[in-house]
Amino acid sequence: MAEKVYKTMKSVGAFSLVTGILLIVGGIAAGVAVIINGAKLLQAKSDLTF
């Protein structure tokens, strides 16, 4: 019985670790994309009129 619980906990822990790593990578990618788009806006600041 205890072995089954440990196997379940192991698989859930591995899934949580992978999910966390993917979220960190996705967050970094989104941050870089936002910084790049902000830099493009700053470069074109003189061309933008309202």
Q: What sort of overall outline do the alpha carbons produce when their principal axes are compared? A: rod-shaped
> In whole angstroms, how far apart are the ends?
69 Å
Task: Show unreliable segments.
Answer: none
How many H/I helical runs? 1
SSE arrangement, N to C: H
> How many extended strands?
0
Strand content: under 5%
The mean pLDDT is 93
Structural class: mainly alpha
As an assembly, this protein is: single chain
Please outline the major beta sheet: none
Q: Helicity range of the residues?
A: over 70%
Structure report:
The termini are far apart. The chain has one helix spanning 2-43. The chain has one helix and no strands. The radius of gyration is 22 Å and the shape is rod-shaped. The longest helix is centred in the middle third of the chain and has 42 residues, at 2-43. By secondary structure, the chain is an all-alpha fold. Helix content is 84%, strand content 0%. The chain crosses the membrane at residues 12-36. Keywords: Membrane, Transmembrane, Transmembrane helix.
